[in-house]
Each structure stands twice: as structure tokens, then as C-alpha cells.
Amino acid sequence: MRIIAGAFALSLLAVPAFADEMWSSDIGDIVYLADIGDVAVLSYGDGTGFAYVPGLPGAMESRNGGTFYGYWIETGYDLCGATLIGPDGTSGNAWGQMVIEFDSASFPSGFTAQIGACFDPASDVIVASPMTGAVK
Question: Which helix (H) or strand (E) holds 5?
């Protein structure tokens, strides 16, 4: 019962993000799903990948020059040997850190993300381009 109550409480904290905040990248489409407190929740790939970016909610006009530090979790396979749980309750054994830098100050903007697996430093690069007019 506590788990259900906790999940319900988290769902009340989730505020829908702008529906048209989407990017295309070499790892698939990236979609801004929601804000949970001061953490933005993004999904990517085939729906099993999630990125958590503290400080991004509300930063619609002040992204340029700002660096955002977050982490990612992918469900469905074991990579790190330990489980990480996101603020939305998503958990997985494949996770790592990420550093995001936006291309311009305001929406819509592309970004470059560096990611690392498990405790490795963020070194792999993902480039994301904004998809405008694509409301889901």
C-alpha cells in the first residue's frame, strides 16, 4: 500500500512539460515528458531510456551558456551491477551521468550531451536537434 501511495504522490508532483519539446538524435527521438519538482524528465530511444536533469524546469529562456548536470537510466538490461531509481520511480541497472549544453538561450534549441556509463566520466557525445511543430 505504501508503494501505491508513494507512486500516487509522485504523479501529483509531475507537471506536464511543453508538448512540443522534442529533439531528434542518433539515439532516437528525445521527448521532454514532465517536471518533477526541479527535475526535468526526458525519454529517449525506444521508450526504455530516461534522462533526469535538475535545474532544467523553468529554464525556457536561460539555457544558453548554462550547463546542466544530470543522469540517465535505461531499463531492461544489466550494465552497472547496481540499481539507480529516478524521481518518477523508474529503476534500472544501466545508468550514468550526463552533462547537457544548449545551443541557444531560448526554445526551441538543440543541445549537445556528454554521457558516461555507470561511474565513468561523461565522454560519449550525443547531438540533438529540435523538432518543432511536432505536438504529441
Answer: helix 2-13
- d(CA 21, CA 82) in angstroms, rounded, equals 31
* pLDDT score of 63: 66
Q: Of how many residues is the chain composed?
A: 136
Instruction: Name the pTM for this structure.
Output: 0.79
Q: Quick one: pLDDT at residue 1?
A: 37
- Count of other CB atoms within 10 angstroms of residue 80: 16
| Cell numbers linked to 134 | 511536432
Beta-sheet pairing, 91-92 with 67-74: unpaired
Residue 6: which of 109, 61, 87, 80 has the closest Cα? 87
Neighbours of 115 (CB within 10 A): 21
